[in-house]
Amino acid sequence: MPDGLPNKTLIDLLERAGRHPEGGIRFLDRAERDRWVGWAEIRERAKGVCGGLRELGIGRGERVALVFPTGLEFFEALFGILLAGAVPVPLYPPVRLGRLDEYFRRTARMLEISGARLVLADARVRRILGEAIAAARPPLGCRTVDEVRRTQDLNISEAVRVEPSDLGLVQFSSGTTVEPKPVALSHRALVSQVRAINGCWQDTDGRRQSGVSWLPLYHDMGLIGCVFGALDRDIPLTLLGPELFVARPALWLRAISRWQGTISPAPNFAYALCLTRISDAEMEGVDLSSWHTALNGAEAVSLPVLRAFCERFARWGFRPEALTPVYGLSEAALAVTFSDLAVPFRSVRVEREALAREGLALEAEEGREIVSVGRPLPGFELEIRNEEGRVLPPGRVGRIWIQGPSLMEGYLDAPEATARALRDGWLDTGDLGFLRGGELYLTGRAKDVVILRGRNHAPEEIERSLEDVPGVRTGCAVAVSWLPEDADGERLVLLVEEARNASSQQLEALPEACREAVLVAVGLAVDEVVVLEPGTLPRTSSGKLRRQEALRLWLAGELQPPEPVTALRMAGAMARSGLAYARYRWSRNG
Amino acid sequence: MIDSVILEGIAQVAQKHLGWRGPLTADMRLVEDLRLDSVRLLTLAAEVENRFRVLLDEADELAIETVGDLVAIVRRKLGA
């Protein structure tokens, strides 16, 4: 793509793909049976849905939510909505055997925030959704694709004119009842993102690209990266549902082998799950040598997992250079940086103390090892800035700001949140990292979000579930996640202040009670509960909890109950900072 | 199939796929007592289906809170 942004919409991509018979989607079921559906058929089916939506009065720019498992109906609904000039809002279906109260609240909240006029859902999901629909009351209710579809008057779809600047997708970056973040993406941003990614892999004489994905279709990596990517090029895409992957991870690798997959992305946890839940017997006859791009993103990348995955699956032809750590976020429509596709992943070891205390990345043999997530994609720029907005030199940790052709328009109907994130055409990612040799290394987060298994969670939601736990000081608990060096994924930690009047019995039961409360309310397993004396957690001057600071102090072993400020204490603090400076100077010279 | 046999099968699934150690009783709740997060709940559902060769549907799953609920649904599915 030369200078200038693509003047295309997703509808243009669908029209183009519909004329090329080699493009389409292969759906796999739990018995590994496949069903191929070409883009031409998807387009025809979507036209039927579009006709029905227009008959219902859905117009250009209006939002329609869709809740489907992975399958053909999702695509009929998605492209039907787009053909009608409306904006799809994909939401996730309920988790199997999961508690539904929280799901209902969250779904209702997302429906309200997105302003969806109508919900399209799978017949089975609709039976369950009732309570969320009743609470959110979308004006046109909840309907199935079969109910909406019209077979006559297909031309009705041709009349809708959509511009590249129109919204093409509303993607929730984290599903939450507290502060949902509906990321509004234009057609232009989506097409730009897809072009930037697709530019990374070309067909050659010897290799035809082929995608395989089990990622949820309500997730940016699954929808934008895999589906829209395949739509833009004639890359056949093989899909299996996320519930099938989690139930039997071998299905993913077997699909790559059987359909000669060349590109298949997943979050870190998926690679870890393969290590523990795939037996050698399930891998019989599997050949992973076609898989040249195993993207790893959407959550922190664990080096032990990367190494163990290479080692374990080399027997079946997996090549280490395939593993490709990447970085991105919904607010940029997905990818921002890619590491080198043709070489094995790279890492650097940096001095722990200088990194933690001064935000300095100094190479050290025994230091903390951090993986490179690569360089910005063509068309993207990246800067590391300090809290005052000044650009920092390489080797200094700061906030990652990005600029590029696929940034969001903003958070839907949330000008204040948008103004905090977007400034002068740059996006504050809220992530922390440093540059070295032009490559990005992630060190943590400044923003308050818990990222587990590729999904973002608002800490407020986890903390709220602790409110009724006996012995917890009201409003004095924080939920944070971080990636320990030797771990296979991020760890969820609760830092909880005990109530002043807590009984010894309550205190004893506190960790277990907190774990249970979080599991029941949000379905997340807590890795560690740290009980603190009242007043220990750091706060802002206005009294808000400082989660990332609390995590930093805890990791540094400095999370202490407050003491009155005295002259002696001040002197101690000054001496400590002097010592840290001396250490820094010493390590630089040494 | 009688309940105790189904319960034993579920216990084996929990041991093999969820790393559950210790006895499994019908009154245990999946989330609070077995400590299953969403990924592990999904694993349990899928592995129980594999083990007993039944298909649970969403309406059934809504009513499942305890191991005993799961046993009852599996029994009903096997009888159907």
Structure description:
The complex is a heterodimer of chains A (590) and B (80). By secondary structure, chain A is of the alpha/beta class. Chain A folds into 3 domains: 10-331, 3-Layer(aba) Sandwich (Rossmann fold), CATH 3.40.50.12780; 458-555, GMP Synthetase, Chain A, domain 3; 563-590. Chain A contains 18 helices and 27 strands. In chain A, helix 2 crosses helix 3. The relative contact order of chain A is 0.09. In chain B, helix 1 (3-18) crosses helix 2 (38-52) and helix 1 (3-18) packs across helix 4 (67-79). The radius of gyration of chain B is 11 Å and the shape is globular. The A-B interface holds A 94-100, 124-125, 127-128, 243-244, 246-248, 277, 453, 515-516, 519-520, 523-525 and B 17, 30-32, 35-47, 50, 56-59, 61-62, 64.
Structure in a nutshell:
Chain A is of the alpha/beta class and 590 residues long. In chain A, 34% of the residues lie in helices and 22% in strands. Chain A has three domains: 10-331, Rossmann fold (3-Layer(aba) Sandwich); 458-555, ANL, C-terminal domain (GMP Synthetase, Chain A, domain 3); 563-590.
Q: Give the biggest beta sheet of chain A.
A: 5 strands, antiparallel
Which fold name is given in CATH as the topology of chain B?
Non-ribosomal Peptide Synthetase Peptidyl Carrier Protein, Chain A
Question: What name does the CATH topology of the largest domain in chain A carry?
Answer: Rossmann fold
Average residue pLDDT of chain B: 89
Shape of chain B: globular
Q: Give the domain tally of chain A.
A: 3
Helix content bin of chain B:
55-70%
Helix content of chain A: 25-40%
Computed CA radius of gyration of chain B, to the nearest angstrom = 11 Å
By CATH, the architecture of chain B is named Orthogonal Bundle
The number of E-state strands of chain A comes to 27
Number of helices of chain B: 4
Shape of chain A: globular
**Overall strand count of chain B:** 0
Structural class of chain B: mainly alpha
CATH class of the largest domain in chain A: Alpha Beta
- Unreliable parts of chain B: none
Question: What is the top-level CATH class of chain B?
Answer: Mainly Alpha
Task: Round the Cα radius of gyration of chain A to an integer and report it.
Answer: 25 Å
